[in-house]
Amino acid sequence: MHYLRYGAAEGRNPNPLFDTDWYLDRYPDVRAARANPLEHYLREGAAEGRNPSASFDGNWYIDHNPDVRAAGVDPLAHYLWHGAAEGRNPGPSLRARAGRVVRPVINNIRPEMVAPAAERFASDPRPVLVMLLHHEGGGTETHVRRLARTFRTQALFLMLKVGAGRNFALSLLNPEDGPEVEFLSDNWSHVCAVLRSFGVRRVHVHHTLGFLENMRYMLYQLGVPYDLTIHDFMLICPRMFLYRNGVGYCGEPDVAGCLQCLREEPPGLSEDILWWRWLGRELIKGAERVICPSQDSADRIARYVSDANLVVVPHEDRTVFTGRRVRVPPLSSRDAMRVAVLGVMAEHKGVHFLLDCVAAWKAANVKVDVTLIGESLLAGVENLLHVTGRYEEAQLPDLIAELNPHLIFYPQQCPETYSYTLSEGLLAEVPLLVPDVGAFRERTEGMDWCWLYDPTDSPLALTELLRRIRVAHLEANTPPAMVPRLPHIPVHETNWQFYRDDYLLPSRTSVLSERPPS
Fold it and tell me: What is the DSSP letter of 416?
C-alpha cells in the first residue's frame, strides 16, 4: 500500500499508465476533495469516464472493445491484465508508447543482472525458497524478512514482489548475494524461467494482491510445492480486511449478503464474491501448508475451506511476551493521561473511530493527551491529537519510551490476523486497551495490564471505560484482572515449534500438476 500511504502525496505514479499529477490537474474536484487519485479512479473515476492519464483513453478503449463495455470492467485494468497480452490497441496514437511501457516481456532484465547469483543459488546444497508478495511492505514484508534472517544459514531466499502493471522486484534476501532487481513483464512463463534458474524448490505465498488470477498458472509453471501464509482475509473476500467504510467489521454475512455488500460499495478488486472466493479456495486447498498466525485467523479460513491443511503458527514466540513487568507512570487526578496509538492509521485500522473517541473524551473533559506514534492516511487528525510521523521499525521502542504513555489504545474495529504493533505494545510493558476481535484477544489472554473492549461500543462507552481504567487502575496503580482464556477448544492446535522443526523439511505432497484453465 506504499502508493496509498505515501506515493500519491509524493507525486509518484502507481503504474506507467496512471499519472498522479495529470489526474489531479485534469480533475480539480479530486484535488479539492484531497482524495487519493488512484482510489478515486477505481471507485468513481473509471465509471464516470475519466481517464487515468494522457497516455490512455478509457472511453476510446471501451468504444473499440464492446466486450469490455459489456463486462462493465475498468478499461485500464482490463488493458493491463488482458488487453495488452491479447494485442489490443490502447488508443489511436498510443500503441507504440503503451507497448514499450506495458509489454517489455522481460527485455529490460539483462541476463548478467541475475546470472551470477542464479548460478550460485542453483549450485548451493541448501534449499532455495521464493517468497511471493505484493509491493506494499507493511507487516507482510516484515515477516518475510524476519524469516529470511532466521534461516539465513539453513536456506537461500528470494523475495519476488509483484506490483501494478506487472512490475516485479526480485530481491536476494541474503544481503551478500546482491541488490534488488526491478523489471516489467506481462509473461508469467518468463518470470518463472528466471525463478527456475535459481533452483527454486518451494514457493511461500504471502500475498497475491493484484495477481490472484495468475497464481495457479504460475505455480503450475514452476512445478514446485508451495506454502501459504494468511496475512489478511483477501482470499475469502475482496474486502481484504473484512471492513466496510462507515460500517466497520462486515460481519461475514452469507453469499447473498456479500453480493449485496460488494454491489452497494464496490471495493475495486472484484464485485463477484463467487468467482473471487473460488480463486481463493483453490489457492488455499492446493497449499501443502496454510500457515495461520492466530487461532482466530485459522477458524475464519476454515469456515470457507474446510479441507485445507491449516496450521496455527504465530509469527513470533509467545514466550517473548510473557512475564512482562508493567510499570505505570505516576498519574494524579490533576494530570493529563498520556495515551499512545501506534502505526499507520487508515480506515480499516480505525482512524475514524479513534478521532470520534478523542473528540468524545475532550467533550467529556477527560484529561487525556493522545499521541499517534506513526502517521494517518486521513488528513486533519493533527487538530485532535499529536502525530509523530513515519518511523522505521527499529525506532518504535525508543519512541514509545520517550512518550512514556500511561496506556496504548488500539482502535481497530475489524479482525487482524496477528498485529505487529500489538507485539510492540506488549514488549513496551505498557498497559494496553485492545478490541475483542481477531487475534487481539488470544494474544492478550493471561497478560498483565490489558483490557478488552467491544469493537461495536460507542465512543461514549469508551469514554466511561477510560474513566474507570484511569481512576480504578492507573491512578491507584492497581492492575486489572487478566483477560480470561476462552473456554472453547480450538479447532486447530498451535504448533509453536513449526518454524524450528518443520518449515524447511522436504515436501511430502505432490505439486500442482493440473494445468489451470485459461
Answer: -
d(CA 353, CA 378): 12
Coil vs helix vs strand at 85: coil
* Beta strands per DSSP E along 306-381: 310-312, 337-345, 368-376
Question: Taking a C-beta distance cutoff of 8 angstroms, is the pair 207, 231 a contact?
Answer: yes
Q: What CA–CA distance (Å, rounded) separates 242 from 253?
A: 10
**Whole-angstrom Cα distance, residue 474 to residue 406?**
7
Per-residue exposure over 16-55, b if at least 16 CB sit within 10 Å of its own CB, e if not: bbbbbebbbebbeebeeeebbbbebbbbebbeeebbbbeb
The contacts of residue 420 (CB under 8 Å, 6+ apart) are: 139, 142, 315
Residues 6+ apart with CB under 8 A from 411: 341, 345, 349, 350, 351, 353, 354, 357, 435
pLDDT digits (tens, 9 = 90+) for 339-386: 999 999 998 999 999 999 999 999 999 999 999 999 998 888 888 999
Contact 495, 503 (CB under 8 A): no
Spell out the residues 6+ positions from residue 32 whose beta carbon is closer than 8 angstroms to its own: none
Taking the complete model, does pTM exceed 0.90, yes or no?
no
